[in-house]
Amino acid sequence: MPDVLPLTPLTSPLDATVRPPGSKSITNRALICAALAPGTSTLTGALFADDTQAMMGAVTALGARIDQDPDNRTLTVAGIDPSTATTAGLIDARQSGTTSRFILPAAALLNTRTVVDGTPQLRARPFGPILDALREVGAQVEELGEPGYLPAAVRGPLHGGKVEVSGHISSQFLSGLLMAAPLMRDGLSVSLTSPLVSVPYVEMTRAVMIAFGAQVTDLDVTAGAYTPTAYAIEPDASAASYFLGAAAVAGGRVTVSGLGTNSLQGDVAFADVLAQMGATVTRTPNSMTVTSSGRLHGVDVDMADISDTAQTLAAVAVYADSPTRVRGIGFIRGKETNRVAAVVTELRRAGIDATEDEDGFTIIPGLPRPTRFATYEDHRMAMSLSLLGLRSPGIEIEDPTCVAKTYPNYFTDLAALT
Ligand SMILES: O=C(O)C1=C[C@@H](OP(=O)(O)O)[C@@H](O)[C@H](O)C1
Ligand SMILES: C=C(OP(=O)(O)O)C(=O)O
Asked: CA 99, CA 51: separation in Å to the nearest integer?
């Protein structure tokens, strides 16, 4: 992959079927549950990318053993008994929010000290709420850098019981606590101290936990154990947004296979936003299709539940016939980069009238000029802005390999669409 990737606009409408790689969020949840289930679990359809390699390294550090079979997208996991396991002592969560926020409570189940750290990008993201909650449930927590940030050390065991956690910064704190909770002495009952963002991810957490034999109702988890399980992981719905967005931008039809009406992922609702913009969306139990003439209307939409697709929408909105306002996503300023500022800055450099709002952004459609887009070490900046290259000449993507965080073959799969 070159340092800068030039893109060539399509000359005819799309007519393609694509199956994105496995869901990052489901893979990393299944890895946690499998690692905490004494015995052998098999995960099929798994994602092989930087974020899931980070999680594999993390659970391995806690004593789980993983056999990777990338050709068959399968992981075989031999889980641990946290009451007797010992840790390798240091976990590098790399750039991965899910790995870091999910492994902290899991590591804190063990009666030995684990340090969790990550890249400078991850060190800049918030951890205060989960570190405070872990103290409340019995962990010894050391904040080794800035208070409320990585690196941090944790040591258990955890008595569990009642705990409060905020919901407005990230749902990952809650998901991480819930997944460790069956192994806490008293189980766990969580109260939220602020409104929850990314709600569908918590529903996903419960679904994966239940598949591995946990007892969880709403935010209450009963003490018990995980059961080793054979678990099938569906394709990544956030990744699918780029291909569905491609159909909207370039016109034509794109079908995403493996993501149907019963998906665990909230991000499948991105297709409904495209429908509001004028595209046609059809779903079957095992696929979704977007068909578009390329003529789109702007929308006013709250994306607090599906914020990983907000940048995708920003790219699509450039080609609508009226402005698009995205609300409810102020918290994405704390993701891989400040995503509100980054997307607005890059679209403005392309001559598009985009503005930052307190809780999101507004995009006034226009004709993008040839632009070399910066990507801020954010896979979603690269994948979203690539959609402009399908319709407008002279679009280039800097540092295209940053997509390796969740989708190493993205640009190959994008090229294969045509
Ligand atoms: O739980 C998860 O798997 C995720 C939750 C979301 O994060 P927040 O809860 O921080 O919004 C999402 O952006 C992230 O990509 C994956
Ligand atoms: C926010 C993201 O990832 P994470 O929080 O898991 O690092 C993402 O994949 O867009």
From this structure: 7
